[in-house]
Amino acid sequence: QAMSKGLVAGQELFTDSTHLKANANKNKHTNKVTAVRASTYLDMLDEDVALDREKAGKKPLKARESEPKTKNTKTSTTDPESGFMTRDNKPQGFFYLDHRTVDGQHGIILDTYTTAGNINDSQPYVQRLDYTLATFQLNPIAVGLDAGYFTAPVAESLERRAILGVFGYRRPSRTKNTFKKKHFTYDAQRDSYQCPNGQELLYKTTSRDAYREY
Question: Between 3.40.50, 3.30.420, 3.40.1010, 1.20.120, what CATH number should domain 12-171 receive?
Answer without folding.
Answer: 3.30.420
